[in-house]
Each structure stands twice: as structure tokens, then as C-alpha cells.
Amino acid sequence: MSLKGKTAIITGSTSGIGLGIAQGFAADGINLMINGFGDPKEIEKERVALEKMGITCVYNNADMTKPDEIVEMVEKAVEVFGSIDILVNNAGIQHVSPIEDFAPEKWDAIIAINMSSSFHTIRAAIPHMKKQGWGRIINIDSAHGLIASPFKSAYVTAKHGLLGLTKTVALEVAEENITCNAICPGYVLTPLVEKQIPDTAKARGITEEEVKRDVLLHAQWTKKFVSVEELAGTALFLCSDHAQNITGTHLSVDGGWTAG
Question: Is residue 155 annotated as a catalytic residue, yes or no?
């Protein structure tokens, strides 16, 4: 089955992993609703670039901390495209701090964006997927959904919770020709990761180069950062017929991190 002409919502897709997946989907002929924050001119530039790949791409600025805006985003996608076939929950933020200094408002924001927003998108999209008898839900999780690292209490908690949501949703829609899976990347050198390098250096009392070498890539046995292209390819596989019996699980793309 070709995915050409299918429609996908990708949250947090104006940069980093989400944009990489959007580019991979566009190359495969999938129409897109992208979402995220950033400079409006840059977002429009990326949207136009995606459309030049021969698909229709619209941008929605829903705030992933606001459930009403999330529901409106899903309904808008259905209004524009007539369906929502694929949902990729990718929006995420990070904050690195010892737990005794961890700002409560940072905790609340990370839980809302990295975990709860996926509940709201899935809840809104499932009825449309059931109606059409087909759907693919992909939650961009993390190696931190499987193991912990210090100074990332909110992020690790949210990513562990997202795996639980993935499994539960998969069981509920298992007979509806809808799958729900998670992709658990290791470190990808995205703007989100780059921004946490100085904070990690400060928290650990080491240099930024030491953070890259001894913290970020220490556990990735390949000693390579994961690429957004690899993640886009994994997401496309999960949307294909070859993966129709893969549901309620995760695929680790982490250079062997969680195997060690």
C-alpha cells in the first residue's frame, strides 16, 4: 500500500526531529499539518519547502500545553484534508537541573508538552481513524523512556509515561486497523539537545566538549549521533503494511545505548 495522499499531523515539527520526519513523509507523498513554535518567517520557509516536494502542507500554531488548542488542531486537519491518517507526537522540551533545584513550573511544562499533549492528540484523532478503518500513531519517545539519567527528572518521568500510554492505546484499538507505537531515539544533535549541553556542563562541572564525548555519546556504543533521516525512515516503516502487526511496542534507535 502506498502512503501517497495520506495525511499526517506532526507536533513539534518546525525544527529538529519533527521537521526531519516531515521531510521524510513529504518525500513519500504524505500531506502534512506541521506544528510548533519559532520565527514565523522561518516556519513559512520550511512549509513552502515541504510543499515544493509535491504535497499539501499547512501550519498550525496550537500550544501543546493547551488541550482546547490541541483538539482544534486535529479538527482543523480533518477539515482541511478530510481525514487524519497518521499522528506523530513529537513535541518536547527539556530542562536539566538537580531535583532540589528543579523549578516546579518547568516540571509542569515538561509533563504537559512531552506526555499529556499526546493524550490529547490521540483522544481527538482516534474517532476519525476508527471511522475510516485505518490509522497509525507514532509517539517519539526516547531512550530515557527506558532508562534514567540524573538531572532530568521531569523528562525521564514524561518519557516513561508516554510508553505506558503507547501500550494502552495500542490494546484499545488493536482490532480497528490502527497501530500505536513509540520510537526511542538516543541522542540526536537537534536544537533541543544543543541547548541542554551548557546546562549539563554546569550541572556536572565539566566542559561542553566533555558533555558531548563523555555524557551524550558515552552510552551510544556506535559513538555516533542518531540522524533525523534514520528516525524518518523508522516512522515510515511503522506506517507501512509491513508493520501492521507491530503495535504497542517501541523501536530503539539509540546506537546500542539501552543494550549495554
Answer: yes
